[in-house]
Design a protein that fits this description.
Length: about 950
RNA sequence: GCACGGGUAGGGAAGCGGUCAAACCCGCAGGACUCAAGAUCCUGUCGCUUAGUGCGUUCAGCGGUUCGAAUCCGCUCCCGUGCACCA
């Protein structure tokens, strides 16, 4: 019979919802477990990747419930920031992929149009996440506690958090450079291009401007390698461009117009005048290198682009491939500069100056490399870029400054850069400039620039005390995987101050100390486990934003202030306030925060640090679980790229339980997995098979008691279940699922094969097994529990009873013996091509071989040692007469020393005699069991190969 | 640039100092069942060898630590990931 997964999934989900299984209340004295997952940004349909982590969360909480914990498993929505806005923009622009997805989901044009308002988008997806994803996957979330980061109550909560940070002196103001559209304000640059039309992969580049003197004016050259300024032998300008004059403080700069427009946003008192100068007119003139006061000739070069840097380039041919190629080009073709009236002599006199010693190169790395790569023309940009990279990297890592640097001689380039920049800035010959590695265009079509924000607010994550306290807490926490636990302290050290507010029309909480700013989405989602404590009361209407104020939060979360004062200020009933406070004290600290690997360097560190900054030590979080992704063939699956609605279909086709099992079993939680439908299908059939197996057992009418195999079943299953429990206790879901869905049914099948059929025993075993299936495949487990085992309760609310049994090793050994013999028999049958044996003889190893193993192991003590083993053998009177066999046997035992150490002899002869019937029935033939020593001469050799736990076998 | 991770059978993936030729899943091959296909079950799947065995070679490469290393350390070669106003 085919199981109707769809039907049972719905049936049990309805049942759980009806009974409110996810709802959590504090219960005095009962042990608790509080888990959250990093809530999703509200910006589109969820996909198989999101569901992976959420599913782990549900599995863990279900298991904890079974272990008798009172579990709080809430969820919320991260609505602040850009995503919802970006989504609405897509609707407005009628983006076909987005519209189609929504149509496919069943929305009509009017409903789609409503999503042009980001607030509606948030509401729309909130409902979808709950109804179509979380509930459909069987999650027992406390749905009364749902809250989003743009609700007014959350805003109040944020205001409190930031007031706490301010009190702790962790909010600071300083200048900041950030991407910005001159039209629309601040923009985000990210690879998904949520906020921009082009340039998602752009990186911010920090140039240094060196101010070359051109008469009374300044020719500002932008460079990434200010340390090479000592080796400048000429300047480059693109002769086709027109330069502008800029008044900046008391100076006058000459540079490209484009560059000036950009710099305007980064400098104060930066005024572009109407005076224009054709670049051509400067070529052939000389300017002065401000660092060493040498004269430098200005030359023409086609590779100079106005969009990059200032459009003025300093030339260091010894260390820059572009410069060398361009210079070489001119020197070989002096006629090119005839029109500029530069003497050929002067041009040819220009010689590269070497500055940096690098082990892998000679005096002029750029020249060497250009020659070896066969570079000739300025147009070979790709190769030139590559060469530039190579020289830069080599010199940066292994290069040292030479004698031209005077007191800085011998300094490593990697260190020299910062030292020299500082020196130059002090002498007022250098300035900073920011740019992008590629063109970035805003959604409005304007080019994005880097803008100076003079008074940006930061959260001071660099604070020493905060960092060290956070590291201390991290040390105490349980963190999965281990690797991340090791990484985290380093990340906390490295984590720098973070700009925590922005200006612009983004969703989020207004910054309480300056309402023009909006709190940025990473900073507003660090303490949210706290809000779930009261979100229930918010949903129920007992608390609303007007009741909330800093004093309230202080009282609840920090035990500051008095009940009376808080009641007066908030207008809330004292009983209610006390209840919220009790809830907090009951549920806190948070036991586990679960999130994807993308959170490793951003969310988790700030989550921890904000807790440390605000809460008392006893309330700090206790655990972090990081799960990796489900990737498509081309890497990460993203919400925006569709494929999300299909998750419904996946659940329908493969069943939710199979997907849940898939997530657990396909690999550890801490590797990326590639979704494979074929394999998902297999998991469905595994579940089907397990169901049928149980059905078969339950429906069998007979009941037989067979001590030997009954004992084994009890033993082995207890062992397996204990192993499974241990696995999930350590949050090793892969191992857990393997025990439950593969190993245990295998044992059950073996029991049946061995003619075990003790109904009472089986039923109690099935009961235990079904309980253990509940966390991963809850729908199937309920169905088995109810339909096959005829239970009236819900397995989701069952408790796990600890098994306190000592294992009887002998029972296990017996079955290992039988299994060994069976597989040997099959082997022999195949190799000897005997289909229907007439008679089978088992030769059990003689007792002295047991003695031999014991003696050898004892003689060796803790390490295999041939000499000691031989000596031990000879000392044992029982073994002396078998001395002729000693070398071979000792060698064998030694080679298997660690296995043999575990060896415990069992009564093989008696056991096999008892089990004769089993083999006789299986092979339909006569079985004889004998000892190896008591046999006919012609079989002696065969019989003598018998070893303990491995009888010799003869088939006729 | 900064910081991490990984290279294990045809593919995926466990193992993270001795019980490892390596769980488990997929694929492939053979067999059973079946009119047939599918499903299911059994067997095999590094090489040679064999009536159940034995031997050899192995966990990217090279060195080291150890009685003992896929597992720890160092170097080399590949591959991948995260990085702050994106969440």
């Amino acid at each position: 019979m085919q199981l109707n997964f769809d039907k049972i999934t719905q049936k049990w989900q309805n049942e759980w919802t009806k009974k409110g299984l996810g709802n959590a209340e504090s219960i005095k004295g009962k042990k608790k477990f509080y888990l959250i997952f990093a809530y999703p940004g509200v910006s589109g349909f969820l996909h198989v990747g999101h569901m992976r982590g959420y599913t782990y969360a549900d599995i863990i909480t279900r298991f904890k419930r079974m272990q008798g914990y009172n579990v709080l498993f809430p969820a919320g929505f991260h609505a602040s920031g850009l995503p919802a806005i970006a989504y609405s923009v897509k609707i407005k622009k009628k983006d076909p992929a987005t519209i189609n997805q929504l149509k496919e989901y069943g929305l009509n044009d009017k409903q789609i149009q409503e999503l042009e308002d980001p607030k509606n988008t948030v509401e729309f997806f909130k409902r979808i996440y709950v109804e179509d994803f979380w509930k459909k996957f069987g999650f027992l979330i406390d749905y009364r506690r749902l809250i989003s980061t743009i609700q007014p109550e959350y805003n109040k909560f944020m205001e409190w958090q930031f007031s706490k940070l301010k009190e702790a002196n962790l909010l600071v103001q300083k200048p900041h450079f950030a991407p910005c559209c001159p039209n629309c304000g601040p923009v985000a640059i990210d690879t998904a291009e949520t906020d921009i039309a082009q340039g998602g992969t752009a990186e911010t580049i920090n140039y240094t401007i060196i101010k070359f003197k051109l008469g009374k004016r300044i020719l500002p050259a932008a460079t990434l390698r200010p340390e090479t300024v000592y080796g400048v032998i000429n300047m480059w300008l693109n002769p086709e461009t027109e330069l502008v004059v800029v008044k900046y403080n008391n100076e006058e700069w000459i540079l490209c117009k484009e560059a000036a427009e950009k710099l305007k946003f980064q400098k104060h008192n930066f005024e572009i005048t109407s005076e224009k100068i054709p670049a051509k007119s400067l070529i052939g003139k000389k300017c002065i290198n401000p660092v060493n006061n040498q004269e430098v000739l200005i030359l023409p070069a086609g590779f100079v682009e106005c969009g990059i840097g200032t459009g003025v380039v300093m030339s260091v041919p010894s260390h820059a491939p572009y410069d060398w190629i361009a210079l070489n080009d001119l020197q070989q073709n002096p006629q090119k500069i005839e029109e500029y009236k530069i003497s050929k002599d002067k041009l040819l006199k220009l010689k590269p100056v070497s500055l940096i010693k690098t082990p892998d190169f000679g005096e002029h790395p750029a020249i060497e490399l250009c020659k070896s790569l066969g570079l000739k023309s300025q147009n070979e940009t790709e190769k030139l870029e590559e060469a530039t990279q190579i020289v830069y990297r080599k010199e940066f890592h292994s290069g040292k400054l030479n004698s031209l640097y005077g007191k800085n001689e011998g300094v490593k380039v990697s260190d020299a850069k910062d030292i020299l920049i500082k020196e130059f800035e002090q002498k007022n010959v250098a300035e900073e400039m920011y740019g992008f590695s590629e063109k970035v265009v805003c959604r409005c079509g304007t080019e994005v620039i880097v803008k100076l924000i003079p008074n940006q607010w930061f959260i001071k994550y660099s604070d020493n005390e905060l960092t060290s306290k956070s590291k201390e807490q991290a040390k105490k926490m349980s963190i999965w995987p281990d690797q991340y636990k090791k990484e985290l302290p380093g990340i906390l050290d490295w984590f720098n101050d973070r700009a925590c507010v922005r200006q612009g029309s983004w969703l989020g909480t207004k910054f309480p100390f300056d309402r023009q700013w909006v709190i940025e989405p990473i900073s507003d989602s660090t303490l949210y486990p706290l809000i779930y404590i009261l979100s229930k009361y918010i949903t129920e209407g007992k608390i609303n934003s007007e009741n909330l104020c800093n004093e309230f939060f202080d009282y609840i979360f920090l035990s500051e202030g008095t009940l009376d004062a808080v009641a007066k200020k908030t207008g809330l009933d004292k009983k209610l306030i006390r209840q919220v406070k009790n809830d907090f004290e009951y549920w806190y600290p948070l036991d586990l925060n679960l999130g994807g690997k993308e959170h490793k360097t951003v969310h988790f560190p700030v989550f921890l640090m904000n807790h440390v900054a605000v809460l008392k030590t006893k309330d700090l979080p206790k655990g972090i679980f990081v799960n990796w992704w489900v990737v498509g063939e081309n890497g990460k699956i993203s919400k925006s790229k569709g494929g999300a609605v299909s998750l419904h279909n996946l659940a329908k086709v493969f069943s939710v339980d199979a997907l849940r099992l898939y997530y657990c079993h396909i690999g550890s939680a801490h590797i990326d997995i590639q979704f494979d439908e074929k394999i998902a299908q297999k998991y469905k059939s595994i579940l089907q098979k397990d169901y049928l197996l149980i059905e078969k057992v339950v429906k069998s009418k007979k009941s037989v008691k067979r001590k030997i195999i009954d004992d084994w079943l009890v033993e082995t299953l207890n062992q397996k279940m204990q192993k499974a429990i241990n696995s999930i206790d350590g949050l090793n879901l892969k191992k857990f699922s393997q025990e439950i869905y593969y190993s245990i049914p295998e044992d059950l099948n073996w029991y049946l094969k061995r003619d075990g059929l003790n109904k009472k025993l089986l039923l109690s075993f099935l009961e235990q097994w079904t309980k253990l299936m509940m966390p991963i495949t809850p729908h199937l487990a309920e169905e088995i529990w109810h339909t096959l085992l005829k239970k009236k309760t819900l397995v989701s609310t069952e408790q796990w009873k600890k098994i306190n049994k000592k294992t009887k090793q002998e029972v296990i050994q017996t079955e290992i013996l039988i299994k060994t013999i069976l597989s040997d028999l099959e082997n022999i049958k195949q190799l000897a091509k005997i289909n229907k044996p007439k008679k089978i003889t088992f030769f059990v190893a003689p007792a002295w071989k047991n003695e031999a193993i014991k003696t050898v192991v004892a003689a060796c003590k803790d390490q295999p040692d041939f000499k000691k083993a031989m000596a031990g053998w000879m000392k044992n009177p029982k073994l002396k007469k078998h001395a002729d066999k000693s070398p071979k046997m000792v060698k064998k035992i030694i080679s298997d020393f660690w296995k043999m150490k575990q060896f415990k002899p069992i009564a093989e002869f008696e056991i096999l005699n008892k089990e004769k019937k089993f083999f006789e029935k299986l092979y339909n033939t006569q079985i004889e069991v004998t000892t190896a020593s008591k046999t006919k001469k012609e079989l002696q050799t065969k019989a003598s190969s018998a070893m303990p736990m491995k009888p010799a076998i003869y088939i006729e």
